[in-house]
Amino acid sequence: MSIGIIGSGNIGSAFARALAKARIPATIANSRGPESLTGLADELASFITAGTREEAASADIVLVAVNWSKLPTALAGLPDWNGRIVIDANNPIEAPLFKPAQLDGRLSIEVFADLVPGARVVKAFNHLLAPLLSGDPKAEGGSRVLFFSGDDDAAKAEVAVLIDRLGFFGIDLGSLAVGGRLVQFPGGPLPALNLVKFG
């Protein structure tokens, strides 16, 4: 099961660090090209490789974490997703102003899904702050919670296995329509909560 990451900002880099800590290989890409990722690739050498957007997008599971306004460009012109799993780790908001994007009444996951036709979309990894995502998931003595949702049960099951391998406790929030609303930032009740499962 190959993993790709499109986006090397806070969440993309934190996800890469979590993978490396769990000894899971992946390819990470951004809009500036592999040479701009030398520092991160060196830090996480032997597990995380810097690649092109096309290389990252060809993986079996692809996590996308890009500034909201740059998503259409980041995902344009890529090969057919052909049923592969794409994880939406994005929030419809951007620093430094953190002004919510105009979604015209739609959920951000609906907008995202339109940008990856043919993909099996799972919403995950967007609700935790980056330091918690890359930190020790057992830090509080239990297992830090990671929410996920999706409309394809098999795709969700594969993401659940990945979450478990990273050391987190995954909670399935159900469909994208339900889970996507609960973890959407801003607006949903679950973003930025550091919840821990004990026992």
From TrEMBL:
<dbReference type="InterPro" id="IPR036291">
    <property type="entry name" value="NAD(P)-bd_dom_sf"/>
</dbReference>
<dbReference type="InterPro" id="IPR028939">
    <property type="entry name" value="P5C_Rdtase_cat_N"/>
</dbReference>
<keyword id="KW-0560">Oxidoreductase</keyword>
<feature type="domain" description="Pyrroline-5-carboxylate reductase catalytic N-terminal">
    <location>
        <begin position="3"/>
        <end position="92"/>
    </location>
</feature>
<protein>
    <submittedName>
        <fullName>NADP oxidoreductase</fullName>
    </submittedName>
</protein>
<dbReference type="GO" id="GO:0016491">
    <property type="term" value="F:oxidoreductase activity"/>
</dbReference>
<dbReference type="InterPro" id="IPR051267">
    <property type="entry name" value="STEAP_metalloreductase"/>
</dbReference>
<dbReference type="Pfam" id="PF03807">
    <property type="entry name" value="F420_oxidored"/>
</dbReference>
